[in-house]
Write a structure and sequence with these properties.
By secondary structure, the protein is α+β, with helices and mostly antiparallel strands. It has three helices and seven strands. Strands 3-2-5-6 form a four-stranded antiparallel beta sheet, with no helix packed on it. It starts with a helix and ends with a helix.
Length: about 140
């Protein structure tokens, strides 16, 4: 038998044992609402769209993390830092979970994180200055 015939037979058999549908069990759904528009929504770390999201998002049954990063984040540290906006949810098969995000209240948290970051920078600069001063004293 020819290698070409074996390949065609194996390729044909793969359709018989393949997955019959996209979801093996009935999927669960997540419906997202937010108080502002154009807010990027992330599901398990992947961007799924910007609000308003009209259709529910199909997901497999299990634990998922959903969060947002408001477009007002201009500081690169803040945009990748932890803002505690992620929510951990459990989705059952065939169930719809409604999630609501209030981005207006995140502004206070952003100001707090920026202040902490600024204080951390000042402490680092002070420690570096002391270290350089000690090196200068030792070398003299």
């Amino acid at each position: 038998m020819n290698k070409k015939h074996i390949f065609v037979i194996l390729y044909s058999l793969s359709f018989l044992i393949g997955q019959s549908s996209v979801f093996e069990s009935e999927p669960g759904f997540i419906r997202v609402k937010a108080d502002s528009s154009s807010v990027p929504i992330y599901l398990d770390g992947n961007l799924i769209g910007h609000t308003p999201i009209t259709n529910p998002i199909p997901v497999m049954e299990g634990v998922h993390f959903i969060g947002f990063h408001p477009p007002s984040f201009k500081d690169p540290f803040i945009s990748y830092g932890k803002v505690n906006s992620d929510k951990q949810i459990f989705v059952l098969s065939g169930d719809t979970v409604n999630i609501s995000f209030n981005t207006f209240l995140v502004d206070n948290n952003i100001k707090k994180i920026k202040k902490e970051y600024q204080i951390t920078n000042y402490i680092g600069i002070g420690m570096l200055s002391l270290f350089l001063y000690q090196l200068w004293i030792i070398s003299s």
